[in-house]
């Protein structure tokens, strides 16, 4: 029996010697192996900046949402001072989760034995514990995680060792800055699960090859496959421009300052590894992906718009997102079943404008997890 982790890591290393115009797909176990997922969790999701939501989900002091990342339970909250903070959602008494879902509160009271924490994570009260010699509330603070807000998106770095995020994305900024993402309104958000590997969804979002066949009635009339153009990439992002069909009307309202060309295209980009964004002139759909086993992905997705939530253009765009998401979900769930085949061999990827982003995502993984890379 070959070791699947070694096989995948060797395949990633092999990619480094293949030219982009000969790009081939990874072996299917890349998307199905639980052992490889464990490696991804430890050496990608615990080390990199991982997007877990948008500031529009917690606009007011006290607002919070709970989420899980590679088994870590997190509370993402807005402090009374207005900052975004990420705390462990695990009570320091015996490990109960403090909150689920979303809400607004000043303090967090564990429902099991009523220990109380404030929004800094400090333990304020622990009933009857003063009878225990040596017990000190100051030693029971909730761990807090390194956090950065970039263009309105909330990122966490679980191990706390990553360099600041914004400087890493300097090459991306000229491509997206005129679209003014940070000034857009949060108009919709949802948490869902699809039965596919997290990388299948990242790759799907990032390739334009499927736009016309998979989204024939929804996206093809706006951004057909044939008009896709690959954008530059670096270690931290990749993407393409989904150009608008010349027959498609203007997508209004859009920010002042877009060039003529920018008014007729959506930058589609991935901030490696898990944050994918489709940035239309007037609306923007994003997904924050979290692996939940090798064949399930947790998706926190939403829409930010130049319009207000109850404006018709925002409502119409959210409806469009639901429609094309359903089309993608159907494809990715049958894809995941197909990837379990023992007879599927690697094949060629489409030209760079259509699937070059997948090659870039592979190369990112190869730089992190190839067998030539020392991981500890
Ligand atoms: S587990 Fe939270 S108070 Fe006991
Ligand atoms: Fe799609």
Summarize the structure.
It is built from seven helices and 17 strands.
**H-E string:** HHEEEEEEEEEEHEHHEEEEEEHH
Number of helices: 7
Uncertain segments: none
The helicity comes to: 10-25%
Task: Give a structural overview.
By secondary structure, this protein is an alpha+beta fold. The protein is globular, with a radius of gyration of 22 Å. It has 7 helices and 17 strands. The strands form 3 sheets. It has a 7-stranded antiparallel β-sheet, with no helix packed on it. A 7-stranded antiparallel β-sheet has the order 11-17-16-15-14-13-12. Strands 6-7-8 form a 3-stranded antiparallel β-sheet, with no helix packed on it. Strand 14 (265-271) and strand 15 form a beta hairpin. The model has no long low-confidence stretch (mean pLDDT 97). It has 2 domains: 4-48 and 165-369, Naphthalene 1,2-dioxygenase Alpha Subunit, Chain A, domain 1 (Alpha-Beta Complex); 50-157, Rieske [2Fe-2S] iron-sulphur domain (Rieske Iron-sulfur Protein). Bound molecules: FE2/S2 (inorganic) cluster and fe (ii) ion. Fe (ii) ion (FE2) binds at residues 204, 210, 214-215, 324, 328.
Question: SSE layout and pairings?
Answer:
Blueprint: H1 4-15, H2 34-45, E1 50-54, E2 63-69, E3 72-78, E4 84-88, E5 102-104, E6 108-109, E7 116-117, E8 123-125, E9 144-150, E10 153-157, H3 173-176, E11 185-194, H4 198-206, H5 211-214, E12 229-230, E13 237-243, E14 265-271, E15 275-279, E16 283-291, E17 297-305, H6 312-338, H7 352-369
Antiparallel strand pairs: 1-10, 2-3, 2-5, 3-4, 4-9, 6-7, 7-8, 9-10, 11-17, 12-13, 13-14, 14-15, 15-16, 16-17
Helix pairs in contact: 1-7
Bound molecules: FE2/S2 (inorganic) cluster and fe (ii) ion (FE2).
């Amino acid at each position: 029996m070959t070791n699947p982790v070694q096989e995948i890591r060797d395949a990633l290393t092999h990619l480094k010697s293949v030219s982009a115009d000969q790009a081939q797909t990874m072996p299917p176990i890349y998307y199905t192996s639980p052992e490889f997922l464990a490696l991804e969790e430890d050496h990608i999701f615990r080390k990199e900046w991982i997007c877990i939501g948008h500031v529009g989900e917690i606009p007011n002091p006290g607002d919070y949402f709970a989420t899980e990342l590679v088994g870590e339970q997190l509370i993402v909250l807005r402090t009374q001072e207005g900052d975004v903070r990420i705390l462990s959602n695990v009570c320091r008494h015996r490990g109960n989760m403090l909150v689920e879902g979303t809400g607004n509160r000043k303090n967090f009271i564990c429902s099991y034995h009523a220990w109380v924490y404030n929004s800094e994570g400090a333990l304020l009260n622990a009933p009857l514990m003063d009878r225990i010699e040596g017990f000190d509330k100051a030693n029971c603070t909730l761990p807090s995680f390194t956090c950065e807000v970039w263009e309105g998106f909330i990122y966490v770095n679980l191990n706390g060792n990553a360099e600041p995020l914004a400087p890493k994305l300097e090459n991306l900024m000229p491509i997206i800055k005129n679209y003014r993402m940070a000034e857009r309104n949060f108009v919709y958000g949802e948490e869902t699960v699809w039965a596919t590997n997290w990388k299948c969804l990242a790759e799907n979002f990032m390739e334009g090859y499927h736009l016309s066949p998979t989204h024939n009635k929804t996206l093809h009339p706006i951004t057909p496959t044939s008009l896709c153009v690959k954008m530059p990439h670096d270690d931290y992002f990749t993407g393409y421009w989904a150009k608008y069909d010349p027959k498609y009307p203007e997508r209004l309202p859009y920010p002042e300052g877009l060039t003529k060309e920018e008014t007729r295209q959506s930058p589609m980009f991935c901030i490696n590894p898990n944050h994918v964004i489709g940035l239309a002139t007037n609306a923007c759909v994003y997904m924050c992906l979290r692996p939940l086993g090798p064949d399930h992905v947790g998706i926190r997705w939403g829409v930010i718009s130049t319009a207000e939530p109850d404006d018709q253009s925002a409502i119409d765009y959210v409806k469009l997102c639901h429609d094309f998401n359903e089309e993608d979900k159907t494809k990715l769930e049958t894809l995941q079943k197909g990837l379990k085949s023992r007879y599927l061999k690697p094949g060629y990827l489409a030209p760079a404008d259509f699937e070059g982003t997948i090659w870039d995502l592979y190369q990112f993984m190869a730089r992190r997890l190839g067998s030539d890379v020392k991981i500890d």
